[in-house]
Amino acid sequence: MAPPNDDEQKRAASRIDELETRLAQQDQTLLELSDELYRQQRQIARLEAELRQLVDRMKTISTPEPASSPADDVPPHY
Fold it and tell me: Where are the alpha helices (DSSP H) in 1-78?
């Protein structure tokens, strides 16, 4: 087998450089996506906590008053 000539070596080096550049860009993209996912998870957790607070508040507000007995009713005035 003949040793690679200069053109083949240059093409191989160029291809390796291109692959290394792509890998670096993909690593950067993965880091950015990971950071965004982390931010979104924190936001979801905050929103869930707020929703629980609102549900609890609504339950408190909409708690029915105890039913009054007929003896407690004020008779109508004629």
Answer: 6-61
